[in-house]
Amino acid sequence: MVTEKSAIFIIFGGSGDLAHRKLYPSLFRLYKSGFLKDHFAVIGTARRPWSDDYFRETVITSLKDYFDDEEEVMKEFSKHFFYQSHDVNDSEHYIALKNLAAKLDDQFKAGHNRVYYMAIAPRFFGTVAEHINSEGLKTADGYNRLVIEKPFGRDLDSACELNGNISKAFPEDDIYRIDHYLGKKMVQDIPVIRAQNDKFEEALNNKYVSNIQVTLAESIGVEDRGGYYETAGVLRDMVQNHIMQIIGAIASIDPKAKDAKVIHKNKCDLFGSLKDLTPEQVDTNFVRGQYDTDNLDDEKAYRQEDNVAEDSNIETFTAGKIEFENDRWSGVPFYIRSGKRMPDKSSRIDIVFNDNVTDLGIKANTVVTLLIERTNDHSILINGIDYKESAQDFIKFPEEKDFVGAREAYESLIIDILSGNRVNFTLWDELRSTWTYIDAIRERWDSQTPDFPNYVSGTMGPDAAEMLLERNGDSWVWDD
Ligand SMILES: NC(=O)c1ccc[n+]([C@@H]2O[C@H](COP(=O)([O-])OP(=O)(O)OC[C@H]3O[C@@H](n4cnc5c(N)ncnc54)[C@H](OP(=O)(O)O)[C@@H]3O)[C@@H](O)[C@H]2O)c1
Hints:
Strand order of the largest sheet: 8-10-11-7-12-13-14-15
Pfam family, one: G6PD_C
Keywords: Carbohydrate metabolism, Glucose metabolism, NADP, Oxidoreductase
Protein name: Glucose-6-phosphate 1-dehydrogenase
Enzyme class: oxidoreductase
Family: Belongs to the glucose-6-phosphate dehydrogenase family.
Structural class: alpha/beta
Shape: globular
Number of strands: 16
Helix content: 25-40%
Bound molecules: NADP nicotinamide-adenine-dinucleotide phosphate
């Protein structure tokens, strides 16, 4: 059932890429489905001096990239959009924002609810949060929710600093850290699938699982994001957040839990049991790579991309073996892999069972694959075959109505923000554990000079990624 929501959105960075490519199309979908109707307004802010009319035109132009023939609806939708020129460091501008928000709240009867969305560079998050507080933008009788986008820091120290700054102004319960993988349908469906399939859930532990593989592969290179990538690399960009959250969905206990606090505690406990890495274990358990040009010279090497240093040692590929020390998962390798310029785009979890599963009536060495990017119901494979045709009855796909996420990721996450549902957001305690783990890898890597580039564009990464599994007698399920 659709319940209309009321709020004034203040989007810092309202003229930027994230806002136009992700936020406005998602808000439009929510408008069309009735979650947003009469009682909302969007204030876009950025330094450039746009008028309301010009801002609305930019919103409509970006919507046209995603929707056809709906110009009248777009025009009606855009009447909820307003622009306020703003520099994050200027206190006066916050007063202007506060007054505009109050006026629009009266006009649209938005219930004094505020969503402060940081679609700006992370270095501004602290300043903006502080000013929202000090200039009195928060309302007394509605909610005040702060939304921030990854990256949440670049290591534990910077994440602590960032968190320290924003938590002076907003309590943890009002901070919504977006990891858009947590808005993806399959990632949200994993607990539902686990909760509704007793035998599958019974088999998800070290007695029955040989290994679990998480692959987030892209066929494209860094495109125009070379500058950002030079400060990140795939370890920070994909592993610390997306891959860890996917592991959280498949490996934390009690998928039937409904309470956000319990769900987060279970995830925190899991991340708290990540097995520490010595520098030598980083060398044996983690592989890094950087793409070279393909042999045809059709594709540039990473070092030839715009805004990338000619001698860059940033990794565009990583594979690794993550282990946990807890009753459920000790001894089970979680192999992870993510890279750019791999043969195909693929986001998947492969759960490889051992031969003990015959005790549960499951065929020995069964592989269950959960495809993350699919949007229809053909997103589970059993031994490579669509589960519906596999004639195995130990896993059933729940009814569509039981699924949580049937929407585009940002759309689903915005509904959660408007509903005060924090299940699908990243909490600070989770970040602390995952950054500690990632920092150990980064520190070791930064102390050594890699032999880059070391894989050809369009391939599965360096050979060492295959050997990592072969050493344990395992192999990647997804192989070219
Ligand atoms: N783009 C994505 O797909 C994506 C994905 C994941 C996360 N993110 C995160 O989302 C955030 C925004 O990224 P983006 O790609 O949208 O960046 P962007 O296109 O560069 O937009 C940045 C916005 O910030 C505004 N801005 C810059 N300096 C400002 C200042 N001093 N005061 C007020 N506004 C200022 C810019 O407008 P003016 O120049 O007019 O001020 C612009 O609207 C970043 O934290 C990024 O890491 C983005």
